[in-house]
Design brief:
There is one protein chain. The radius of gyration is 28 Å and the shape is globular. With 646 residues, the protein is of the alpha/beta class. The termini are far apart. The relative contact order is 0.06.
Length: 646
């Protein structure tokens, strides 16, 4: 029986790098059905235009006359659209994602493999650039900030859904690890190197006044304006190929030696690459397929020393790196290029490009999917490692340990190999059995075993329940701040009178997704870090934590959740207790499941607190929050009475 495969891509309205990869994926899985938010067949290659695709309700909006293709303004609705795809009948789901495709919800019995072209750059590292250019002035910028906050939270949850994450570069993999605390395989995008080699063979010998070439979308984060400004007043020529919102501004900046072309067909682009002096790249790309295409024609690349360019451009070997993303930095690189004692060897450049050829991508992607299938068939929930040549092999889903020459390997998510704090031996399924782990380390080992299940539990939490939890937090924070303001003011005055220093104490803590924030409390210690008499009364009753309602209102914290820790302790606990970072899958709280079970204060067992925190994350519900909230008062009062008697 033929396997049913679904490929989910963000949108199909142009042919750029992501769509070129999608073409190849359609070749790897010729029987696959295609799902996408919106689609414009006239703008696609014959391969993609001829394939039947299921679109989302976004497509109907994008086709409306008054929209004119500007569907990206519906970004807050994209998560709902991609989650609406019905994939129940498929056993393999492949998402090709630079925006929301990885959030597609595959059935429990299906394998979900996500190829990540990029994380949501415009709500993360490029947010300021896009926020500045948002229409609507101050109100528009505020709306964009709110959208960005919502989209970051959704992306973090969605990234837990795929069984396997495959990044298009080490740069993308590093961001995946930083944002989602998951590892990813790296499989670089496929390049039709033969096509560009043939174009180079047909091209005439380059002349002395051959132009530099820049191929890019004309959007703010690509920084094409750096190149256009750098060529002002110079003798060299620049040809820019691309379209986008920045086109009008760039046309005004361009001098007589800069030519802006609209998007061109493949044959024209091949000829431009083959006849240029060098490719100029000023943006920060996750990979940068056009750079490899230029190398395949035997042309060097001048690129900013950031992002995926660092994996393609070797300074002095395959091109030159631009030290700083400034006009002066670009001009300095152009001057270096003009003064090179010898030109770059085209044969060397083409040989380097060969390592990114299409056939390598097809083989490696197919192998990754088969590895993941073996893991699901033979391992416990995807934690088993498979053997290769007598050694434990690297598991595609990032949860199995691998060994090299008999040495213990590392787990791609940091959960494998050495077990809990170095005490668990490497077992056949990638982890040591819990009965072999010392009692004090079992919570950490259990967390490592259940890491993927825990992420899925968070991903499957009802959206309406999470929204209601946030609404309750804001309601409690507003009412609590209003009701306790006189008490906090009075306590603050007493603190200032008792010892020198401010009434409030500020400290950096780690919150949701390991993002740090500034926690505020009433000060309970003096300058010598001794607990004051008043502090000794406030701490047992938790009154010093009343100002944290402000953190709840801001969204740094929740009323109920795992207790936030200071960053240096988090780093230490992560080294000692594998799986500790999983407690950051939910917003930290003023009170929590561990606290109402008697684990308050620095003297309580961190391993035990971790066990209760992960249990809370796994089993969270509004009812559980209600029980914790009710038990908090009796627990705090009981602890305070016991401390006073002691």
């Amino acid at each position: 029986m033929r396997e049913r495969v679904a490929i989910v891509h963000d949108w199909l309205t142009t042919m750029r790098g992501g769509e070129r990869v999608l073409e190849v994926l359609c070749g790897v899985f010729p029987q696959a059905d295609l799902f996408t938010l919106t689609r414009d067949p006239a703008a696609l290659s014959p391969v993609l235009a001829g394939r039947r695709a299921t679109t989302s309700p976004i497509d109907r909006v994008a086709r409306a006359p008054f929209v004119g293709g500007r569907f990206r303004g519906l970004l807050p609705l994209f998560p709902f659209a991609v989650e609406s795809f019905k994939l129940d009948d498929y056993s393999l789901v492949v998402s090709s994602s630079h925006c929301v495709a990885l959030g597609a919800i595959a059935p429990p019995t299906a394998l979900h493999v996500a190829y990540v072209h990029s994380t949501l750059r415009y709500v993360r590292e490029a947010q300021r650039t896009y926020e500045t250019s948002a229409p609507g002035g101050r109100l528009g910028r505020a709306a964009f900030r709110g959208t960005a906050h919502y989209m970051r939270g959704w992306e973090t949850v969605a990234a837990a859904r795929p069984h396997v994450l495959i990044a298009n570069s080490r740069y993308t993999r590093d961001r995946i690890e930083s944002y989602f605390q998951r590892d990813a395989l790296v499989i670089e995008p496929p390049i039709e190197t033969g096509r560009f080699e043939r174009a180079a063979a047909r091209a005439p010998r380059p002349c002395a006044d051959a132009p530099f070439l820049l191929v890019s979308a004309l959007v703010p984060n690509k920084r094409v304006d750096l190149a256009v400004r750098a060529f002002q007043g110079r003798s060299e020529r620049l040809v820019v190929v691309g379209d986008g919102a920045e086109r009008g501004r760039l046309e005004r900046l361009a001098g007589p030696n800069v030519e802006l072309l609209h998007r061109v067909d493949d044959a024209t682009l091949d000829a431009l690459c083959a006849s240029c002096k060098a490719l100029l790249h000023t943006g920060v790309d996750d990979f940068g397929m056009v750079m490899v295409e230029a190398l395949a024609t035997g042309k060097p690349v001048l690129a900013c020393a950031e992002g995926g360019a660092l994996e393609i451009v070797r300074d002095g070997e395959t091109g030159l790196l631009i030290d700083a993303p400034t006009v002066e930095g670009v001009r300095a690189a152009l001057d270096r290029f003009a003064c090179l004692p010898a030109p770059f060897d085209p044969a060397v450049l083409q040989a380097f490009a060969k390592r990114f050829d299409r056939e390598h991508f097809e083989r490696r992607f197919s192998d990754a999917v088969e590895d993941a299938r073996r893991v699901r068939r033979g391992g416990a929930n995807g934690h088993a490692a498979h053997a290769a040549n007598g050694h434990a092999a690297h598991a595609t889903n990032g949860h199995a340990a691998h060994a090299t020459n008999g040495h213990a390997g590392h787990g791609a998510n940091g959960h494998a190999g050495h077990g809990a704090n170095g005490h668990a031996a490497h077992a056949a399924n990638g982890y040591a059995p819990l009965e072999d782990v010392p009692v004090e380390h079992r919570p950490a080992a259990e967390s490592a075993l259940d890491s993927l299940d825990l992420r899925r539990a968070v991903a499957n939490q009802p959206r309406t329940a999470r929204a209601f939890k946030r609404l309750l937090d804001m309601t409690l924070a507003v009412s609590g701040l209003a009701l306790t303001a006189p008490l906090v003011a009075a306590l603050g005055a007493c603190i200032v009178l008792e010892s020198r220093g401010p009434a409030l104490f500020y400290q950096r803590r780690m919150g949701l997704d390991q993002r740090s924030f500034t926690l505020v409390k009433l000060r309970t210690m003096d300058a010598e870090r001794r607990v004051t008499r008043l502090g000794g009364l406030l701490r047992p009753l938790g009154l010093d934590e009343l100002p944290q309602l402000w953190n709840v209102l801001k969204g740094d914290m929740s009323v109920i959740g795992p207790r936030p820790e200071v960053p240096d302790r988090v780093e230490r606990y992560e080294r000692e207790l594998p799986g500790y970072r999983l407690r950051h899958l939910m917003r930290p709280g003023i009170t929590g499941w561990a606290q109402v079970n008697g684990l308050r204060g620095d003297k309580s067992s961190i391993a035990e607190r971790l066990r209760f925190d992960t249990q809370y994350v796994r089993q969270w519900s509004l009812g559980m929050d209600a029980r914790i909230f009710a038990r908090t008062f009796s627990t705090v009062l009981g602890d305070a009475l016991r401390e006073r008697r002691g």
